[in-house]
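sry for the spam today, last one i promise. struct tokens for design, 258 residues
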């Protein structure tokens, strides 16, 4: 396996990418979330790419326009389809043996892939898709609040804090009111993501870390009977826990081997 830095064009901008080489005919395209560079937080995506390439599958990562080493203006995840398509074209050119590409994104990178109807990928692995919009960005949805308080009630230290008066009762009351609200109705972003995914014809896996508020917010507006959903118990947003990291690797490898 070799790790190759490279550049490629997206309209009038030059974007930066990284290819981890491997011999398989299926490859993984990693789309970064937020304004995160292609190596990921604390190089998490770089390590993920190395693990997948070691298993035999080439992996391509890139910085979208206006992020990291890439030129251009940052248009945000909602307008990143052209960046993903350009990265996919570069991946196929640099690894000509591949005939199938699995697109993987976490958080709003998953949302970007959904909005773009896969952007030309053959299969999708969508992790903790971002559905929070507008002024609600900083407000956890009722489902996330309920999950948070349920977890606290299992923790003896949190119960001791309540008994000894170390808990802000006003904040607790506001949280209980928030948790009692009914299930959120899908917003325009979630509806657009659903519509985009409906026009994608390939296989899809939707991965949710059950301790992640972004995943909980997504679950609150998504059909719980969707057979494509898979939950990782005790996992947080970036799957940093050893069992969660291994679970994510298995999910990605299963998608690549399908």
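last one done:
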């Amino acid at each position: 396996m070799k790790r190759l830095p490279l550049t490629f064009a997206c309209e009038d901008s030059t974007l930066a990418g990284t290819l981890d080489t491997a011999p398989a005919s299926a490859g993984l395209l990693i789309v970064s979330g937020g304004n995160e560079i292609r190596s990921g937080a604390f190089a998490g995506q770089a390590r993920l790419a190395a693990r997948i390439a070691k298993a035999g599958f080439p992996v391509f990562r890139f910085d979208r326009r206006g992020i990291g080493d890439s030129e251009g203006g940052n248009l945000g995840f909602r307008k990143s389809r052209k960046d993903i398509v350009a990265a996919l074209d570069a991946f196929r050119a640099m690894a000509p043996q591949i005939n199938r590409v699995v697109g993987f994104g976490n958080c709003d990178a998953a949302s970007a892939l959904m909005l773009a109807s896969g952007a030309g990928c053959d299969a999708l692995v969508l992790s903790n898709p971002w559905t929070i919009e507008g002024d609600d960005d900083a407000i956890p949805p009722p489902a996330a609040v309920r999950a948070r308080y349920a977890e606290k009630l299992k923790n003896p230290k949190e119960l001791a804090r309540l008994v000894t008066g170390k808990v802000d009762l006003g904040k607790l009351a506001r949280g209980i009111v928030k948790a009692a609200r009914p299930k959120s109705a899908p917003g325009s972003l979630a509806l657009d993501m659903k519509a985009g995914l409906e026009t994608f014809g390939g296989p899809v896996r939707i991965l949710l870390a059950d301790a992640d508020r972004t995943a909980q917010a997504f679950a609150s507006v998504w059909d719980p009977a969707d057979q494509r959903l898979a939950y990782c118990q005790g996992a947080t947003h970036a799957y940093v826990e050893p069992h969660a990291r291994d679970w994510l690797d298995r999910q990605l490898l299963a998608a690549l081997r399908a």
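Residues 135-139 have pLDDT under 50 and may be disordered. ok im logging off now
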